[in-house]
Amino acid sequence: AGWFRRLLHKSKPSLVESNLHTRCSTSSSSSSSSSSAKSSSSSPSTNLVRSIPLSPVSLSDINASDSARWNKSYDVCICHSEVDLELVEELVSYLEGQPESFRCFLQLRDAAPGSAVVTELCDAVQNSHCWVMLITPGFLQDPWCKYQMHQALAEAPLANGRTIPVLKGVDRKDYPKELRNLYYIYMALKENSFRQIRDTVIRYLQELCRSSMSRME
């Protein structure tokens, strides 16, 4: 009985070790097989998802007759003070003269004579894809500019690139609190700022068309 107990006591560790070895080899083989399975099945799908680029949206897509761009009357509504009209007319001329031929709403040019100011401002906001806020000392003192700014923010609270603040001659501390969650363009060199505005509008229209195309698919 004594020698049998000693033999049994010695054989247990070896049995445990062999079981452990068997388990380790099994788990390693299963993990290697599973990892190889993942590399042959899971990872391609993951890589495929990561490697698929967003479908490109070209100028022809934006200008196509069925483009979401044409769901509104204007691409850009310029909100400005009357004292800044000369600068705004330059901006509108620049945007409308681009290859994209942006459709701009300019209040003194496009508002219907005899219409109420409030109605025209609200219609301009609702019927435009993007809103450029030319924030100058005149803008900050003009109640109609602030009204139009609030209408734009109410129309698109999350912005998504639609509201484009442009600062000129205004200190950062005077930047409207309502817009402080949005990045702005600081107008130092006029040509650079005009190009930034153009690029921002293009990005929004591209995203708009891309979303529309993905819904159709």
TrEMBL record:
Query: What is the superkingdom listed in this entry's lineage?
Result: Eukaryota
Gene Ontology MF terms: Toll-like receptor 2 binding; Toll-like receptor 4 binding
TIR domain location: 72-208
- What InterPro entries is this protein classified in? TIR_dom, Tol-interleuk_rcpt_adapt_Tirap, Toll_tir_struct_dom_sf
Q: Which residues fall in a compositionally biased region of kind Low complexity?
A: 25-45
Q: Which one Pfam family would you cite for this protein?
A: TIR_2
Instruction: Return the annotated region ranges for Disordered.
Output: 20-48
Organism per entry = Galbula dea
Name the SUPFAM superfamilies on file. Answer: Toll/Interleukin receptor TIR domain
What is the designated name of this protein? TIRAP protein
One GO cellular component term noted in the UniProt record for this chain: cytoplasm
Q: Which GO terms describe its biological process?
A: positive regulation of canonical NF-kappaB signal transduction; positive regulation of chemokine (C-X-C motif) ligand 2 production; positive regulation of tumor necrosis factor production; toll-like receptor 4 signaling pathway
